[in-house]
Design brief:
With 196 residues, this protein is α/β, with parallel strands linked by helices. Helices cover 42% and strands 27% of the residues. The strands form two sheets. Strands 2-1-4-3 form a four-stranded mixed β-sheet. It has a four-stranded mixed β-sheet with strand order 5-6-8-7, with helices on one face.
Amino acid sequence: MTTDPRINDRIRTPQVRLINYTGEQVGVVDIEAALAMADEIGLDLVEIAAEANPPVCKIMDFGKYKYEVAQKAREARQNQTHIVVKEVRLTPKIENHDYETKRSAVEKFLKGGDKVKITMKFRGREQTRPELGYKVLQRLAEDVTECGFIEFAPKQEGRSMTMVLGPTKKKTEAVAEQKAARAAKEKAAEAADSAE
């Protein structure tokens, strides 16, 4: 967490480079003169660049400045994309219907912009035939090529084999597409309702 900049009487240097409230550079002035100018207008003298020689200070409303900084930080946090890794578990002897269900789940996750970790669990004697699991994972990767790609190839780790698929589109693009599709459906439903 950053500390607040020094303001008004907390600024201890004898001279500062002053910027007035309109953003114009006044130049190097004594601290008393800068404080008097800020007090005359009813605003605060805020130290912007303490490392400079002399320090750069600006006349501004400190409360408003703090609020704007907090808003920018909040906006930056909201615009961050969170990468979610979904997991789908399979077995080497998976039946066709189960495979199709898992494939559709993987497609849904990839279209949503999430990464998918596919875990193949081997039980008992299945461990002696890892190529069966490898074939299933390769088949799944080929079936979802239009919405995802292999990020990490199948790798055997003890009793399981894992593979990670990444989405071809970024999460923000996928979310925007989903919103657009939802809006189009709502418009179509409204048009159908008004036609009746």
